[in-house]
Design brief:
54% helix; 5 helices
């Protein structure tokens, strides 16, 4: 019997371009699910390097991991800081009727 090796897959390893990141944020927002959005945001942050990001934001790496997990509850200012550091900003648009 042939042995099969299984490893963890992380979205962060697949995000290669800004367009990939934008597409993932758009998918996350379309779901209208805060936990899913935080999960995607965490994966995007990992693609940059969570330790580097935490250092640039003067945050604790473990705390940032926890905040951006589906169980996290980051402050709005943390979300804005992370987005800004990743090169993004929030934009409000009226929903189509």
């Amino acid at each position: 019997m042939e042995k099969i090796t299984v490893s963890d897959w992380h979205l962060s390893e697949e995000l290669e371009t800004k367009e990939d990141v934008i597409a993932m944020f758009e998918v996350a927002l379309e779901e209208n699910d805060t936990k899913f959005f935080l999960k995607i945001m965490g994966e995007i942050a990992r693609s940059k390097g969570m330790a580097q990001l935490a250092g640039e934001l003067n945050l604790n790496r473990e705390g940032l991991y926890n905040s951006l997990s589906p169980k996290g509850n980051p402050s709005f200012s943390t979300v804005v800081k992370v987005l800004d550091n990743l090169g993004f900003r929030l934009n409000i648009q009226q929903k189509a009727s």
